[in-house]
Structure formats: structure tokens, C-alpha cells
Design goal:
Strand content: 15-25%
Number of helices: 15
Largest sheet: 5 strands, parallel
Oligomer: single chain
Distance between the termini: 8 Å
Strand order of the largest sheet: 3-6-9-1-10
Helix content: 40-55%
Number of strands: 13
Structural class: alpha/beta
Shape: globular
Length: 322
């Protein structure tokens, strides 16, 4: 289905740089190669990543390791109930000497923004992230400020069952290209962590493997990966199936379909392949689509989750081979 329409696209530099990036991050986060690869996939696809799991499993450490593997600007925003929207986007302050308002940039003015525990902030502060995540710009007092590329938000959040949390609204979740859980490490990885993390901090030894200009070049290369008409139809069919499912009261948005295609192009590029195949879509569907779906009350009562419903839909949607 992919064909060789991407012939002539040299992905060797991308594979080499991202391979070194992943190897470096995995020295900090042991035994989580799938999550690390997803983070790099989202970076190449110009998306944003949401890491959701219980405290202490390495969400923030992964975010910091990804940021440190690139020589670019990084800002961390610690989301708390008293954090204000102006702390995120910036604020205009009146300068008594010049008698003019001066803009003081907020935390989102960086190539990589680490949003720690994003669901501890109030809904008003959460919504301050909407414009910058979708349009890569910030509007304050009627003036628009553009954010420099690459622009990646890696946000962490604790499960909504925990105390003192404000669940992210659907509009906010839809702006994250992918969501992933870290999960507990296997015993061997946890033992290795005890050896490496008790004597030194592996994060301090992590060296950048590329800069912002190289990332922009890799993103441009990723966007040139070929997607056939049949693969596009398959992506639309997957999204349509979620919208028509009786088990879901909210299906995947058109933005979700776009994110699925863009993430699949990045996944193909990481494999050194210049074209997307259906397997790229099915492999990424859980990370890209699940957090956007809301099961009906009946489905929830029957013990079904967004993940299980999506898995059934993916198994049933036929792949168009034409």
C-alpha cells in the first residue's frame, strides 16, 4: 500500500541523530524504549505529548532528558492551583521610564516546554495553553507573539482519581498529539536504576546530540514522507468508526485524524522508510486516539474503556488495499 513513492528521500541523517538521541535518553530512563520512541515521534511530527501516570515513575525525568538531548531553549512550568494565565503566556508591564508597556514573556516562550502536573492548575490557567499549542503563538493585550520552532510541550499529569486535580477538558486533550503512561519498570530495569541513580545523576551526564536548527531540518524531512491515498482513507475510516460507535459519546476529531497521519509519517521516518504503511497507523492509534474518546455510561457500566473500545474498532476496520 505504501509503494515506493518516497524513493529518493534520504532519511539516514534522521535515523542516525534520533538513534543517538534515544540511546542517550534510555541511559536516564531505563527500560522504557517504547515511551522514549513515542516522545521522539511526537517531536518530529510537531505535536505535543501528555504523560499520565502515578507519581514517581519518571514522567518529569523523561521530559527533562528529552529536552537536554537537544541544544535548544527549555522552560519548565510547575502547574499549581495558584498559577496564573499570565505566568504561562506573559504579561505587559508599564515602564515608568519609557512610559510604554513592555512585554515580559511567560513560560511558554521556549523550544521545549515542560508542563509539570498540568492538571493541578485551575481550568483558567490550563486554557492559557490552548492557543500556543495549536497555533504556536500567544496573544496578550491584543498583540500576537509567535513562538520559535521547534515548539514542543511535554506535559505530565497524575491520574484523575488522585486528590487536588482539575481534569483537562476535551479541547485541551485534543491538542495533545499523543498520550502515554510510563508504567512501573520491570524488576531488572529498577535494579539497574538503583545502581546508576544512587551514586550519580545520569541526567547531568546527558549531552545534546543536535540543536534547534537540526531539529527543524529533521521535521522538514519528516513532512516529506509519502502517504498514499489508500492510507489516508484508512486513517479517515478509523476516525469515522469512533464517531459512529454506539459505545462512544465522543469520537475522534478531524484534528485527531491529522495527528495520526503526521505521527505515522514520523514513525515511518524513524524506521528509515520514506512512506507510511497501515501498520504505522494501527500501532500509533492507541497513543493518538484513546485520550480523545469518551465512552457512554452504558459502556463504562459494562466495564469497557476507551482503550478496549478502540482496540475492537481497529480490529474491525478493513484496510483499503486499492
Amino acid at each position: 500500500m505504501g509503494g515506493d513513492s518516497g524513493a529518493g528521500l534520504d532519511l539516514a541523517p534522521l535515523v542516525e541523530i534520533t538513534g543517538r538521541m534515544q540511546a542517550g535518553i534510555e541511559k536516564v530512563i531505563e527500560g522504557k524504549s517504547d515511551v522514549v520512541r513515542l516522545a521522539i515521534t511526537v517531536l518530529l511530527a510537531e505535536g505535543h505529548l501528555l504523560l499520565e501516570d502515578v507519581p514517581g515513575v519518571g514522567k518529569t525525568m523523561l521530559s527533562k532528558a528529552l529536552a537536554k538531548s537537544m541544544a535548544c531553549t527549555v522552560r519548565r512550568i510547575q502547574f499549581t492551583p495558584d498559577l496564573l494565565p499570565a505566568d504561562v503566556t506573559g504579561v505587559s508591564i508599564y515602564n515608568m521610564e519609557t512610559r510604554k508597556f513592555e512585554f515580559r514573556p511567560g513560560g511558554v516562550f521556549a523550544n521545549v516546554v515542560i508542563g509539570d502536573e498540568i492538571n493541578r492548575a485551575s481550568p483558567k490557567t490550563q486554557s492559557a495553553m490552548l492557543e500556543c499549542m495549536e497555533e504556536q503563538q500567544v496573544t496578550v493585550d491584543g498583540v500576537t507573539y509567535h513562538l520559535e520552532k521547534p515548539f514542543l510541550v511535554v506535559a505530565t499529569q497524575n491520574p484523575v482519581s488522585m486528590e487536588g486535580l482539575y481534569a483537562l477538558p476535551e479541547a485541551q486533550l485534543d491538542r495533545f498529539m499523543a498520550r502515554s503512561a510510563m508504567g512501573y519498570p520491570v524488576a531488572s530495569a529498577e535494579l539497574a536504576m538503583l545502581d546508576t541513580h544512587t551514586t550519580t545523576n545520569p541526567l547531568e551526564a546527558l549531552q545534546p546530540v543536535c540543536d534547534a536548527e537540526q531539529i527543524r531540518s529533521l521535521v522538514s524531512l519528516t513532512s516529506s514522507v509519502h502517504v498514499s491515498d489508500a492510507v489516508r482513507r484508512y486513517a479517515v475510516a478509523l476516525s469515522t468508526a469512533t464517531r459512529q460507535s454506539r459505545d462512544l459519546k465522543l469520537g475522534a476529531s478531524p484534528r485527531a485524524t491529522l495527528h495520526l497521519i503526521r505521527a505515522s509519517k514520523a514513525a515511518a521516518a524513524l524506521e528509515g522508510r520514506a512512506y507510511v504503511i497501515p501498520d504505522d497507523l494501527t500501532a500509533l492509534a492507541p497513543a493518538v486516539l484513546t485520550h480523545r474518546l469518551i465512552p457512554t455510561i452504558e459502556a463504562t457500566s459494562a466495564g469497557r474503556t476507551s482503550a478496549s473500545i478502540l482496540a475492537d474498532l481497529v480490529a474491525r476496520v478493513p484496510v483499503d488495499a486499492n
